[in-house]
Fold this sequence. Notes:
Layout: H1 13-22, E1 28-34, E2 40-46, H2 51-56, E3 58-61, E4 87-92, E5 98-99, E6 107-114, H3 126-139, H4 146-159, H5 164-171
Parallel strand pairs: 1-6
Antiparallel strand pairs: 1-2, 3-4, 4-6, 5-6
Amino acid sequence: xxxxxxxxxxxxxxxxxxxxxxxxxIKYLDVILGDLSGIIRGKRIPISDAxxxxxxxxxxxxxTFLLDTSGYCPDAEGRGFTDGDPDAxxxxxxxxxxxxxxxxxxxxxxxxxxxxxxxxxxxxxxRNVLAKVWDDFSKLKFIPDSLALNFIFSYIxxxxxxxxxxxxxxxxxxxxxxxxxxxx
Length: 184
């Protein structure tokens, strides 16, 4: 699977097999992501089935990123119970496969990212938002200094705490004081 965003690199099945060669006692793989509130969400997969995640992804609902801190889905823009909470394909992120050394069992974990635009845009994943902004800046040959980056990341962070319609209507029109627009 190839990432929809140039700056988001996906893990390969080879990366998984090399990891398993080094860590033969692994029983489970936790596939995890951070939602917009910073809460870790995920699934625990038996290691015997984990290769499928690196080949064809794992199903999570689109609204996973939109859950609030209690786990409730606010049905933002009809995403959640209104649309039947459909699933999307998520794939492992390159170089994030690691051991969970504090657990009593032999467990590994890997970060995942949404890479499925079949129902909604996968831009809902903050990693994809940042990758798109970075790519758009690269096309303009714009390399922000550390102060500009701090502003941009803060701005994106604030924007991501609002429903998706806020992001598409306001953030992707123009970043104030830069004149850069047309992110959609």
